[in-house]
Design a protein that fits this description.
The complex is a heterodimer of chains A (122) and B (468). Chain A has one domain. Chain A has 4 helices and 7 strands, in the order ααββββααβββ. With 468 residues, chain B is mainly beta. Chain B has 3 helices and 31 strands. In chain B, strand 11 and strand 12 form a beta hairpin. The longest helix of chain B is centred in the middle third of the chain and has 8 residues. The chains are: A alpha+beta (122), B mainly beta (468).
Chain lengths: 122, 468
């Protein structure tokens, strides 16, 4: 996945970095209050993106080359109107989007450092 | 809405998440039994003084615990019928909740159209209907919403849902439900011919200077456009969340801020620009009734874990505003914080949990040792048999408060083809949110659920809140 924080000037200006043992967490916030966290592995690859809140970001900003997989999941395995989950083994995501709500949690398992669990990517 | 009698087939197929599962199950003759089991009759919570009891107060059930026919709806101005069934286009979706609404040209009692199979969604705000459902007189009679109130180009909305995008004109209409009316409110007319997404090109035929995500997603992948009844699985969408407005515009002096982002667009000759401070924002119609406008009550019957072809209930307007909508003394009242409550399940606190009729199941994280994944239906739990579980709901604000919420999980791959209503649909696994319990439509079966709107006075409480 691509990095919004590194590629968008507005995000780059105001973000924090927290170093964990096996990865680093880059966190930024939009003027509208949306929070974005990118989890970066030691080779610099974003292996997880978590966001919460409405923003001007588009799917491709958040999911990069995995956007098509989300779109496919939205067509074939929607869980009602707002929730879509996808898991093809390599790419997992859960998205809830409606008026006033946009939450997402996407993980690229192949780039996830060994020993990191999905549950800690909150 | 279709009310035909239940049919049974001995062999059937159920398709979900791209997987097709064939199941052979015997299906006994249906018989009519009065008052068997533990179904909550689909009446309003307090016996309404001005209503007619259905079937002498008895619920008619088949021997599978399913209601066989639609019960009579109490004849009160603030109560309308709900149904869970296969909807207008026979989508294979489970647990869609439908209602009937009537839209009229503002101020008219004759230029009107009744639209059934409108999906009820407590997870969004605003009435959205398909232009294809409107007769020409009504279509012409709805009043276009202009970008600057009484001036500027007509506006359209790009509504973004997880399952896809909905694009359509914003127009003003009188919205009738039961005996109540929300006069002259903005609604979305999906597929309005004046706002064709595909034709959104400039006069030279070039790609438009128009960055609505509805358009860019449509150009990239038309599958994300759910602006047809078949793709939406409904003739419209009734968003009745506790948020009265779909987004906010607030001003202090000359300084204004908005949460509307790029939702609203002023369009002229197919060139569209973002309306920075929209005046016609979609709203929860119930909040604009003259009375019974502080909340709603959804009552659905109990449904066995194996599911039913359909289930009928009621939508009542107002909470503690009339004799038939009192907040039950036994109800647990939980305040909402930005729409959320807390839920504890399997010793995990999930602080961004929510209750949403627009979600077709309950979705929450659980280890596979507790709830194994389905083999063919990705994202769903498939226990060997019905799993009876319990979570604890609690408040994120105010006095400490918690309540046990029992629920069931049923292996979705065992559901019969004709089932539309099931309390046992659940999923999650590794691809669910780690902080959320999404209480979908299954939560509503066998309960009376209250939704109190934001800022509204509800007895001694102030919304937003949920109660059950």
């Amino acid at each position: 996945m691509t990095s919004v924080i590194r590629h968008h000037a507005a995000w780059k200006m105001a973000h924090s970095v927290r170093a964990m043992q096996k990865y680093s967490v880059h966190q930024g916030r939009t003027p509208s209050g949306a929070v974005l966290r990118e989890y970066v592995n030691p080779s610099g690859k974003v292996f997880a993106v978590v966001w919460d809140g409405e923003s001007d970001l588009q799917w491709s900003d958040l999911l990069g080359e995995y956007t098509d997989r989300y779109f496919a999941a939205a067509r074939t395995s929607r869980k009602g109107l707002h929730l879509v989950t996808a898991n093809d083994g390599a790419f997992q995501c859960a998205v809830f989007r409606s008026t006033r709500v946009w939450m997402g949690h996407a993980v690229l398992t192949s780039a996830m450092p060994i020993g990191v669990t999905d549950a800690e990517l909150r | 809405m279709r009310l035909e009698k239940t049919t049974c087939s001995s062999f059937t197929a159920f398709a979900i998440a791209g997987a097709l599962v064939f199941i052979g199950l015997a299906c006994g003759e249906s018989s009519v039994v009065n008052g068997v089991g533990d179904p909550s009759p689909p009446t309003t919570p307090e016996s309404p003084a001005n209503s007619t009891p259905d079937s002498g107060g008895k619920t008619i059930l088949g021997n599978n615990g399913c209601m066989l026919t639609a019960p009579a709806v109490p004849t009160a101005t603030n109560v309308v019928a709900l149904v869970v069934d296969q909807g207008p286009v026979g989508t294979n979706e489970l647990n869609p909740l439908y209602v009937t609404v009537k839209v009229c040209a503002p101020g008219s009692s004759t230029v009107c159209q009744t639209i059934d199979d409108v999906r009820v969604d407590t997870g969004s705000t605003g009435l959205r209907i398909f232009a294809s459902q409107l007769n020409p007189a009504v279509a012409a009679g709805l009043k276009p919403a202009l970008a600057r109130g009484d001036a500027g180009p007509p506006t359209a909305e790009c509504a973004l849902f997880g399952s896809g995008d909905i694009w359509g004109a914003v127009k003003r209409a009188d919205v009738h439900m039961g005996g109540e009316v929300a006069p002259n409110i903005p609604i979305q007319v999906i597929g309005d011919p004046d706002f064709p997404l595909a034709n959104a090109v400039d006069d030279n035929g070039a790609a438009p200077d128009f960055t609505s995500e509805c358009l860019t997603n449509d150009q990239k992948d038309a599958g994300l456009n759910i602006s047809t009844p078949t793709r939406l699985g409904a003739n419209g969408l009734l968003g009745v969340s506790s948020f009265v407005a779909g987004c906010d515009v607030s001003c202090e002096g000359n300084r204004c801020s908005t949460t509307c982002g790029k939702s609203y667009w002023g369009c002229d000759k197919h060139e569209c620009q973002v309306v920075q401070l929209p005046t016609d924002i979609l709203v929860n119609p119930i909040a604009f009734f003259a009375r019974d406008s502080n909340g709603l009550i959804i009552t659905l019957p109990s449904v066995p874990p194996e599911g039913c072809p359909r289930a009928w209930g009621t939508l009542t307007f107002g909470i503690s505003t009339a004799a038939n909508n009192a907040l039950a003394a036994s109800a647990t009242v939980i305040p909402l914080v930005d729409g959320y409550i807390s839920t504890t399940f399997n010793n995990t606190v999930l602080k961004k949990s929510f209750i949403d009729t627009g979600s077709n199941g309950n979705y929450f994280p659980a280890p596979s040792s507790l709830l194994p994944p389905c083999r063919g239906s990705a994202g769903f739990y498939c226990p060997k048999a019905t799993a009876n579980l319990k979570a604890v709901m609690s408040a994120l604000t105010g006095p400490p408060l918690s309540v046990d919420v029992p629920f069931v999980v049923y292996p979705v791959e065992n559901l019969l083809m004709e089932v539309s209503a099931t309390p046992g649909l659940a999923g999650g696994m590794v691809d669910s949110f780690p902080n959320s319990f999404d209480w979908g439509l299954p939560f509503f079966f066998g309960r009376t659920v209250y939704v109190g709107f934001d800022y509204a006075k509800i007895g001694n409480y102030t919304g937003p809140l949920t109660a059950f």
